[in-house]
Design brief:
The chain is mostly helical and 256 residues long. The model has no long low-confidence stretch (mean pLDDT 85). It is built from 11 helices and no strands. The radius of gyration is 23 Å and the shape is globular.
């Protein structure tokens, strides 16, 4: 006797009972099983919304205790803001153009350091701030892992944190090419060769990143757009989700 195929309601119920689904959508969400269109459930859904105010009403005692791991996440966010401000300043004096005999990008970087008021200071703040952000994000992840904050109910936020770490590394790496010096060319050569070994679509990924078959002016323009627009935009979205889940998952993780 042939088995009856599951109905849409059965499939929906199975999906909503899944552990991954429950870790993403908190109690009170309209996507959780058991949600009813009542005044109470609508108010609960609004209070769990990402647009609800960011700061928690209460802060746990260990969250204010001054230790050697104090505020690593906040320090990482401060560095992201610093990099955004200094990056906007540098954009006023930088043109992502290069080619045979027209190394405008490299000349712009030299002018920023030598001729622009506070240019050398801002450029070094941007450069060392990027190194510091990679360091603090890595330490923040290590502290969260050490405290076991990758376990329920924080497993979804842990995944978001891992994605933010990867985005931080991508932001740092894409900035390497922008000075258009010898170090940048070798860095992008190694990076795009590695991406060429991506399964199935390796050649296509390498072609998209290079803007051709070899490194050229199109490569610089593509990595510039990735560095100043695409990756920061994705990072801001994940930061908003990260902060929201910190609140909804019980605040800052503490010692086990």
């Amino acid at each position: 006797m042939a088995r009856k195929p599951p109905s849409f309601s059965d499939v929906k119920a199975n999906v909503q009972d899944n552990v991954i689904w429950k870790s993403i959508f908190r109690p009170g969400s309209i996507y959780r099983k058991g949600y009813r269109d009542t005044s109470r459930d609508r108010a609960l859904a609004a209070m769990n919304n990402v647009l609800y105010h960011l700061h928690p009403v209460k802060v746990k005692r260990h969250g204010l205790k001054l230790t050697y791991t104090y505020c690593l996440g906040g320090l990482s966010f401060f560095l992201f803001i610093l990099l955004t401000i200094t990056g906007i300043f540098l954009m006023f004096f930088y043109t992502p153009a290069a080619g045979a005999g027209t190394e405008i990008a490299y000349a712009n970087m030299r002018d920023i350091s030598a001729s622009v008021t506070f240019g050398n200071l801002v450029r070094n703040l941007h450069r060392w701030g990027a190194h510091a952000m990679v360091f603090t994000v890595f330490l923040h992840m290590a502290r969260v892992f050490y405290h076991g904050a990758y376990k329920p109910p924080r497993e979804f936020n842990w995944v978001v944190g891992v994605i933010l770490l990867l985005l931080t590394l991508l932001l740092s790496f894409t900035g390497y090419l922008l000075p258009w010096d010898q170090l940048a060319l070798w860095a992008v050569t190694v990076g795009t060769n590695m991406m060429g070994y991506t399964p199935v679509f390796g050649d296509q990924v390498q072609f998209v990143l290079l803007g051709g078959v070899t490194i050229g002016p199109s490569t610089l323009l593509r990595w510039y757009v990735l560095h100043v627009l695409f990756i920061p935009f994705i990072t801001v979205i994940f930061l908003a989700v990260h902060f929201w889940r910190i609140r909804k998952d019980g605040g800052i993780s503490g010692p086990l």
